[in-house]
Description:
Radius of gyration: 24 Å
Largest sheet: 5 strands, mixed
Helix content: 55-70%
Strand order of the largest sheet: 2-1-3-4-5
CATH superfamily of the largest domain: Resolvase, N-terminal catalytic domain
Oligomer: single chain
Amino acid sequence: MKAIIYCRVSTTKETQETSLARQEEELIRLSASYGFDVVSVIKEQASGYDLEREGILELLELIKDRSIGALLIQDETRLGRGNAKVALLHCILKENVKLYSIAHNGELQLSESDSMVLQIVSMVEEYQRKIHNIKIKRGMQRAIERGYKPERNLKNHGSQSGRDRKEIPIEEVVKLRSNGLTFSEIAATLRGFGFDVSKATVNRRYLEYIESRES
């Protein structure tokens, strides 16, 4: 199994640098005892309350690789403190990455309170997804009720969505806007048909179109 080692200390003092080296040594031994293939060792000196850390951002990017199966840490506080710790635990576990710690001499066992908070966070996230899907469905239904024909107007448009500048069917945006839809509803409708666009993007492109027509 491929694994990542993450070490953190809170300050740049010399004693902390020694602690950082010790964490790495102990985690390498722990990984060897499980036969893990360590693909990256991340070390940083930063506050655990801070989410804007180069090391943790690199970690979150690396675990998107489905081949990464384990993350080794000294203990859960090395990931973060307070709310930052809970947020990071949620992000890591959501990627189906197993946590191993020196403190537990194996797979990390979350405290009852942390487990309960993570369950609540997962439930809230699931309901957010449901609300998002309902908004998309509502926007599509409202557009269709006002005479919008997606099967005719959006045919083959989505094939260009991979470009650096996002391609959107601006003529259809104008039609939907003239039918009284908000930019948020227009964006939700387009996302329902495969266009990865935000309300801000739709708003900006609409204004660009109007300005070009007026010039």
